[in-house]
Amino acid sequence: MMKIGKYSFGTGDRFAHEGVNQLKALIEAEKLFGVHFVPVWNKSNREHDIIGTEPISTRKEADAAVKALGYKDQYFVDADHINMHNVDRFIDCCDFFTIDVADYIGHTGTMEERFLPAIKEAGKIYRHIAGKKGADNFVTEVSMDEVDEAQTPEELRYILKEIAKEKIPVQTIAPKFTGRFNKGVDYRGDLERFEKEFEQDLLVIDEAIKEYGLPENLKLSIHSGSDKFSIYPIMGRLIRKYDKGIHIKTAGTTWLEENIGLALAAPEGLALAKKIYVNSLGRMEELTVPYATVIDVDVKALPSPEEVEKWDAETYAKVMRHNQAEPLYNPSFRQLIHVSYKIAAELKDEFLPALEKYTNVIGDQITANICERHIKRLFTE
User: Fold this and answer.
1) Would you say residue 249 lies in a domain?
2) Is-above-0.90 flag for pTM?
């Protein structure tokens, strides 16, 4: 069986342009903190559809980054949030499959009534992939996070038991945790409760490995993990306490740093960043509805186009950058930009050349964001 390393980091990239900068961040983090993270480039079917790309573009990005930096360790390309309807699109170019069965979870009834249909569906999808790709040629993740209600540690134990019965060699499991995991901003919820339940989940995984014969490297996967800075020290402390691995999945944070980098790079980059925001204001419902469960945009907190037009590059960056100590930081502005990558895709004749032209400035933002704001918080008190 293909096995993923102890720590792994899902480096999502909407426009398949920042692979080198993302990999640089993981290499730099290992030098600074002595912790090796396996890179996993992830991009969902929804993101491919919105931008108009194919999964092979993510594979090409990952392979090119590895080659450019002479990287010799393992890396993966994730078919993110796939189901039976779209999995075939990813078979040939991916070696990590996030099987998303959240839609099959019931809202009422016993644990069996609520979760068994989802687990059966996961087994069906896993066997489909294995039949086409070979069971030893990919890593399996099961995702149940995009639901309204968090799963308790007791429910996670039941889920893992049934996954074992389905003979799914799951290496990462993505439950729905307590609290709010909004895109691009910090965790919102009871930190003490999260810490207690996260610790219990780690213990449940240990028990499941021993009792149900699941892979010994099974670990928790944190979806919408980017920018959840208040829980990083908690997770880091607990995975060290129990000597457990972790998979942290990010996607939109790279796109947000591209946006900041554009604004800082040159006047024309700032103008393009502003244009994306202004266009997104006029199409808010269209852009936000698909992400309704993972964003909270306060419309009253959004600046007007006239106000934004007056901003210089530093002001734009301060409003956007996830620095809660900065008085100008605006989480609603940041969340709206998070779901506005569709606008950038529509402006691709301007946007993609700008990514190339200002790659150095943009790259600095992305590398620092992953290394200093994310990984550092996991492994320093």
Assistant:
1) yes
2) yes
